[in-house]
């Protein structure tokens, strides 16, 4: 049951988030100390701490021991605690997602992709290469391999405004269950740097992800190259 205290903490969290989104609290700024926030908003220390904790969990602020709480950089935040599409992530951030389709083909994948998707030797997959943008700025170079068996005629449905997640769930009536994600930092390969408008070797975050349907069968495998200076991955992990 939601208590009055819970409601206050959510209200305060929304207010703090609004301050950051509207640049009232600017990037790198140190937030007022807890006692000052308590006085300004007429709430308890526990309510302040819960609000700040949620902001930290979602990547809006970070804490330095003995120094205080600071506004994080305005990088796009990719949550590692739930399976969300690029479009959903960008809209959550108040940005407008779009894509440039660079290649869309039906092919027999290499052995590495076959292993991820558990395909047969003669089974084809769709290869969808897209430049992902937010507010028309490059964010990510993405190569997705999608099972033709599960998504026949996918090539007829994909356009620059397409969310593949929406196609999976609404057109093919597939239920996405979970994804296994792998992250590593590296320098941007030459073949992607031109599209991302960064120099070869610039820092990127390479993400590999296999997503499974509710029958535990792999639906797609994706490799994404995120511009390191524009993206931040975060997770809220309980101690078990």
Automatic annotation (TrEMBL):
| Organism field | Tissierella carlieri
Q: Does the keyword Cytoplasm apply?
A: no
- Which InterPro entries does the entry mention? Bact_HTH_transcr_reg, Tscrpt_reg_HTH_GntR, UTRA
Listed SMART domains: HTH_GNTR, UTRA
From what superkingdom does this record's organism come? Answer: Bacteria
Lineage, please? Bacteria, Bacillati, Bacillota, Tissierellia, Tissierellales
Name under which the protein is recorded: GntR family transcriptional regulator
The HTH gntR-type domain extends over 6-74
Keyword Transcription regulation assigned to the entry: answer is: yes
* UniProt entry keywords in alphabetical sequence: DNA-binding, Transcription, Transcription regulation
């Amino acid at each position: 049951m939601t208590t009055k205290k819970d409601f206050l903490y959510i209200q305060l969290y929304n207010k703090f988030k609004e301050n950051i989104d509207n640049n009232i609290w600017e990037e790198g700024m140190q937030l007022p100390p807890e006692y000052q926030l308590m006085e300004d908003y007429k709430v308890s220390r526990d309510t302040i701490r819960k609000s700040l904790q949620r902001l930290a969990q979602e990547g809006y602020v970070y804490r330095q021991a003995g120094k205080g709480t600071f506004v994080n950089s305005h990088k796009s935040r990719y949550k590692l605690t739930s399976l969300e599409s690029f479009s959903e992530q960008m809209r959550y951030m108040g940005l407008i997602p779009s894509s440039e389709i660079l290649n869309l083909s039906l092919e027999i994948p290499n052995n590495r992709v076959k292993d991820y998707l558990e395909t047969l030797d003669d089974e084809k997959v769709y290869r969808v290469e897209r430049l992902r943008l937010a507010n028309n700025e490059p964010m990510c170079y993405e190569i997705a391999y999608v099972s033709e068996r599960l998504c026949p005629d996918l090539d007829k449905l994909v356009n620059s405004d397409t969310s593949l997640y929406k196609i999976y769930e609404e057109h093919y009536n597939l239920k996405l269950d979970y994804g296994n994600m792998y992250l590593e930092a590296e320098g941007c390969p030459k073949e992607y740097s031109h599209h991302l408008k960064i120099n070869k070797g610039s820092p990127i975050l390479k993400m590999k992800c296999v997503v499974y349907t509710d029958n535990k069968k792999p639906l797609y495998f994706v490799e994404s190259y995120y511009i390191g200076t524009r993206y931040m991955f975060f997770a809220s992990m309980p101690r078990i």
